[in-house]
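Hi R.,

Here's the chain you asked about this morning:
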Amino acid sequence: MIAVERDIARKAIALAVAVGAYGVSFGVLCGQGGLSVLQAAGFSAVVFAGSSQLAAVGVLAAGGSVASAVLSGLLLNLRTLGFGLAVSPVLGGSLPSRLLASQLMIDESAGLALAEEDPDRSRQAYWAGGVAVFVLWNVATLLGVTLAGAVGDHLETIGLDAAFPAAFLALLAPRLSEASGRIAALLGALIAVSLIPFVRPGIPVVAAAAGAVTVLVAERLRRP
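And here is the predicted structure, written out as tokens:
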């Protein structure tokens, strides 16, 4: 059991509450996309990757294929490889511990960990952030998918139709702090917009993600 200092716990909980709010939108989108409560809950518990989950279920809701949905999520999640390399030195532990830690490898847990200079505090921040976000994201998913049944066809009336893209953009926004992130986002948007009139739903998202990831990988390789 890792003891967590109070200030780190406060940061983790505050971040988890903010991210969890988007989980409600994800849950509603799951319900509107035809996923059952069990499927939506399993999606968040097993995959646990906010923006990638929103992208995948958005493809399904738009009529895209399962293959397109999975591929779009996988491409967006490639960024976690870099997070893993960055935080690996401070996590340590046995193989089972590291495998469990990998399930919590998200932007928020990695960000909290990398913000700390002391290795012990960095380890605390990673686990505190990962666990807090995991719990609230999954609770929010259940709330959202349950709400979807009550909402029915009134998404536009209460504004939840706008909440889905807003949640997706809010989860992606922190990645635009660097020039490479902004270039990747612009390239992805151009690819998606240019393909929408000509291909089936889901394919523009996959192509956009592939283009954006290509820019980010090239930037990583260019760095010394």
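One quick note: Residues 6-174 form one domain.

Cheers,
M.
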